[in-house]
């Protein structure tokens, strides 16, 4: 497949402008041209600051002089200067005809490209920890990863979707310690979701016990004995020592602990499977820390041959101080493994086993230095591959940062159920004739769009303060707003005879209103909006584009009649609406938001 025709179209127009300027002995490149902030200014603009230096005039003088000399031709119908900018106006009817026809011809292929043809990339995302709750903060990682996988595939890349699950480590030891000391078998539910969340509560309780100044004598938090001074220190050290011993025994293969670990690990994995099914996300390969821990320890003798990896006070460290990256402990002095000793062999495995050219790590921005350390270690080992950290900021509640350790957690399940109950009630009130099954199906799709878009609309570098009420608002910057807009488009088309008139010749000069010209321009920019995501690895760029498109359509809807317009105008507007519907659907699919024909 050729690179997007409408990326080519915009390039073609830019090249026309380049030629017009060349006639005035002005040399520029197509990329020097910008999109003005408002349609009234024109369709393409040239900042004249650099030209002013060469011509030894002010930027405004250069722009004014060129505007008076350029003779328009082709798709360029007007040239005007606005201060230091030279702006070009394009014949919207020509562009509209080309754009709309191409969109209706390509349908769901509109926006696809071969930018990444032949390049195999692994995108590692989600990476939840077993024995912890899957909270609303984890959702951001899943949504970013799922959207990037769709967009990379859309742009021709061969993608391997990977999930690296944290099924061992200190957090697991804490949970197992709590289970052994404070939980009876009768306390454990048989329900998959309840078991998974139960483990998360155990981890939080364990964390409190390992840090608190109170001693719980039994399983009941009410039965407490307050301690002071040395008693507190001794008790905490004893508890922490017990956890460390569990971690060591687990890594050494203690049979009883392994059985408990396997049983409880499966509870978490079962819950993750349920959640991924609900979110409609899939993985090609799963990696597990427990497996990479063994690979790392096997690799350790080879690692110690590198001068920057050494033993220090019984531990194994990577000394990266010469690289201004500090020291990374790989193995504790008791022989238990830390993250680095697992991530190093995993990185090698990714490239050698899966033959990838590039590896993306979608990981919380707070792990930025750690990943820099891992990448630098691999580089110093002469393993020089393209590894990219895709950082994102944390999600917080209005009450503060989400943390499994402190217990300030709202689980994905809790948020989803609360939202679903609200939407089901509202949907019932609007559609009393619908069956309960249909109401539930539609409501689930609305909630899915609300949660996913709520995680994608902000740039990866922005902290999210999550508010479910705001995310469900059909009039706000939300997924349901996009679904509502699509439903409105469908409603107009279903009431028209567009299917009968789609092949009738359309006079696109009838799309002459400013809002119509703006919509046409936006349609031509969709392929570029998709391609831009590859530069930033941030789906928020596409989310913003779709929201702007929806907003402008709704402005068009309130400003201009469609079904009651004169026949020729009506026909042109119906074709425009059909193209808008197609682009909106294409974009929603890339962001993995459910499409609704009716709300």
TrEMBL record:
<keyword id="KW-0030">Aminoacyl-tRNA synthetase</keyword>
<dbReference type="Pfam" id="PF00750">
    <property type="entry name" value="tRNA-synt_1d"/>
</dbReference>
<dbReference type="InterPro" id="IPR008909">
    <property type="entry name" value="DALR_anticod-bd"/>
</dbReference>
<protein>
    <recommendedName>
        <fullName>Arginine--tRNA ligase</fullName>
        <ecNumber>6.1.1.19</ecNumber>
    </recommendedName>
</protein>
<keyword id="KW-0067">ATP-binding</keyword>
<keyword id="KW-0648">Protein biosynthesis</keyword>
<dbReference type="InterPro" id="IPR036695">
    <property type="entry name" value="Arg-tRNA-synth_N_sf"/>
</dbReference>
<dbReference type="GO" id="GO:0005524">
    <property type="term" value="F:ATP binding"/>
</dbReference>
<feature type="domain" description="Arginyl tRNA synthetase N-terminal">
    <location>
        <begin position="7"/>
        <end position="90"/>
    </location>
</feature>
<keyword id="KW-0436">Ligase</keyword>
<dbReference type="InterPro" id="IPR035684">
    <property type="entry name" value="ArgRS_core"/>
</dbReference>
<dbReference type="GO" id="GO:0005737">
    <property type="term" value="C:cytoplasm"/>
</dbReference>
<dbReference type="Pfam" id="PF03485">
    <property type="entry name" value="Arg_tRNA_synt_N"/>
</dbReference>
<dbReference type="Pfam" id="PF05746">
    <property type="entry name" value="DALR_1"/>
</dbReference>
<feature type="short sequence motif" description="'HIGH' region">
    <location>
        <begin position="128"/>
        <end position="138"/>
    </location>
</feature>
<dbReference type="InterPro" id="IPR001278">
    <property type="entry name" value="Arg-tRNA-ligase"/>
</dbReference>
<dbReference type="GO" id="GO:0004814">
    <property type="term" value="F:arginine-tRNA ligase activity"/>
</dbReference>
<keyword id="KW-0547">Nucleotide-binding</keyword>
<keyword id="KW-0963">Cytoplasm</keyword>
<comment type="similarity">
    <text>Belongs to the class-I aminoacyl-tRNA synthetase family.</text>
</comment>
<dbReference type="InterPro" id="IPR014729">
    <property type="entry name" value="Rossmann-like_a/b/a_fold"/>
</dbReference>
<dbReference type="InterPro" id="IPR009080">
    <property type="entry name" value="tRNAsynth_Ia_anticodon-bd"/>
</dbReference>
<comment type="subunit">
    <text>Monomer.</text>
</comment>
<dbReference type="GO" id="GO:0006420">
    <property type="term" value="P:arginyl-tRNA aminoacylation"/>
</dbReference>
<dbReference type="InterPro" id="IPR005148">
    <property type="entry name" value="Arg-tRNA-synth_N"/>
</dbReference>
<feature type="domain" description="DALR anticodon binding">
    <location>
        <begin position="482"/>
        <end position="599"/>
    </location>
</feature>
């Amino acid at each position: 497949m050729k690179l997007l025709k409408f990326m080519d179209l915009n390039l073609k127009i830019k090249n026309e402008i380049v030629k017009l300027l060349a006639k005035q002995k002005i040399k520029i490149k197509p990329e020097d041209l910008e999109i003005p902030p408002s349609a009234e200014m024109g369709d393409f603009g040239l900042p004249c600051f650099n030209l002013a230096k060469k011509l030894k005039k002010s930027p405004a003088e250069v722009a004014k002089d060129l505007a008076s000399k350029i003779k328009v031709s082709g798709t360029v119908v007007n040239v005007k200067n606005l201060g230091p900018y030279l702006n070009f106006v394009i014949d919207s009817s020509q562009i509209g005809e080309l754009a709309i026809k191409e969109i209706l011809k390509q349908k769901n292929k509109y926006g696809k490209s071969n930018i990444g043809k032949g390049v195999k990339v692994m995108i590692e995302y989600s990476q939840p920890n077993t024995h912890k709750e899957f909270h609303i903060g984890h959702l951001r990682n899943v949504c970013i990863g799922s959207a990037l996988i769709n967009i990379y595939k859309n742009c021709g890349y061969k993608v391997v979707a990977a999930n690296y699950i944290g099924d061992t480590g200190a957090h697991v030891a804490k949970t197992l310690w709590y289970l052994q000391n404070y939980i009876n078998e009768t306390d454990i539910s048989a329900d998959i979701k309840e078991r998974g969340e139960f483990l998360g509560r155990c981890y939080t309780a364990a964390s409190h016990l390992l840090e608190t100044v109170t001693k719980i004598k039994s399983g009941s938090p009410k039965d407490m004995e307050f301690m002071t001074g040395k008693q507190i220190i001794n008790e905490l050290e004893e508890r922490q020592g017990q956890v460390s011993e569990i971690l060591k025994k687990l890594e050494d293969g203690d049979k009883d602990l392994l059985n408990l670990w396997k049983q409880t690990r499966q509870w978490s994995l079962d819950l993750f499977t349920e959640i991924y099914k609900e979110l409609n996300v899939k993985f090609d390969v799963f990696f597990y820390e427990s497996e990479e821990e063994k690979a790392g320890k096997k690799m350790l003798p080879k690692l110690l041959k590198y001068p920057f990896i050494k033993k220090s006070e019984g531990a194994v460290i990577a000394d990266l101080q010469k690289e201004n990256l500090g020291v990374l402990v790989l193995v504790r002095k008791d022989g238990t493994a830390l993250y680095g000793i697992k991530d190093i062999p995993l990185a090698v495995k990714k490239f050698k086993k899966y033959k990838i050219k590039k590896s993306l790590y979608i990981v919380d921005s707070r792990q930025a230095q750690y990943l820099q350390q891992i990448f630098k270690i691999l580089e110093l080992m002469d393993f020089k591959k393209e590894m990219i950290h895709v950082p994102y900021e944390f999600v917080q509640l209005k009450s503060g940062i989400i943390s499994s350790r402190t217990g300030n957690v709202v689980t994905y399940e809790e948020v989803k159920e609360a939202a679903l109950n609200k939407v089901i009630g509202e949907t019932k009130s609007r559609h009393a004739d619908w069956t309960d099954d249909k109401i539930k199906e539609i409501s689930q799709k609305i909630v899915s769009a609300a949660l996913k878009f709520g995680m994608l609309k902000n740039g990866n570098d922005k902290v999210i303060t999550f508010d479910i009420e705001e995310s469900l608002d059909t009039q706000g910057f939300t997924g349901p707003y996009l679904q509502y807009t699509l439903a409105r488009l469908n409603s107009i088309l279903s009431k028209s005879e567009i299917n009968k008139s789609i092949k009738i010749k359309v006079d696109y000069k009838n799309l002459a209103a400013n809002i119509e010209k703006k919509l046409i321009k936006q349609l031509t920019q969709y392929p570029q909006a998709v391609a831009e995501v590859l530069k930033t690895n941030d789906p928020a760029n596409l989310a913003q584009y779709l929201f702007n498109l929806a907003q402008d359509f709704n402005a068009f809807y309130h400003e201009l009649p469609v079904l009651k317009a004169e026949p020729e105008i009506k026909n042109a507007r119906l074709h425009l609406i059909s193209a808008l519907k197609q682009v909106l659907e294409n974009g929603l699919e890339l962001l993995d938001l459910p499409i609704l024909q009716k709300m």
